[in-house]
Amino acid sequence: MQHTSFAEMPCPVARTLDVIGEWWTLVIVRDALVGARRFDDFKTSGIADNILSARLRKLVEEGVFERRPYGERADRFEYVLTRKGRDLLPVIAVMWDWGKKWTKGRTNTRLVHVACGTELTDVMLRGHCESCDRDVLPTEVRPLRPTAAR
Ligand SMILES: [Zn+2]
After folding, report:
1. Contact between residue 6 and residue 20 where contact means Cβ atoms under 8 Å apart
2. What distance in Å separates the CA atoms of residue 6 and residue 56, rounded to the nearest whole number?
3. pLDDT per residue as tens digits for the range 20-33
4. pTM of the predicted model, to two decimals?
5. How far is the CA of 122 from the centre of ligand 1 (A)?
6. How many angstroms separate the alpha carbon of residue 99 from the centre of ligand 1?
7. First to last CA, the chain
8. Cα 106–Cα 111–Cα 114 angle in degrees, nearest 5
């Protein structure tokens, strides 16, 4: 079912959702931020091939990813976040924080304060890093690859 496009709405939040609001899209961006580049890398989250193809196509069209050939074969591509895509890091960081606070379930993803390398707790993310005694901005965190379930 085709839903109403937010692309022309006079609000940046709505227009952002037009780009990244589809199911799976931010999971793909999250995985790219921790190093996923190739189609098979993104599949580890459990996304179906057809959905992944569609999302990557749209994100390339939107300029969130750049599609680059790799290796010997002409039909092999990797997907690299552009500046526009990397600018979604604070969005992911704030969603991580919100999800820790307001959703239930275990957490296998982690964030690190770029300035000092300390793993952040949910309390620290939008506040203060006790390790280096600096305020922490969402732009100053880096996600780490998921760990085993705990
Ligand atoms: Zn710190």
Report:
1. no
2. 19
3. 999 999 999 999 98
4. 0.83
5. 13
6. 21
7. 38
8. 170
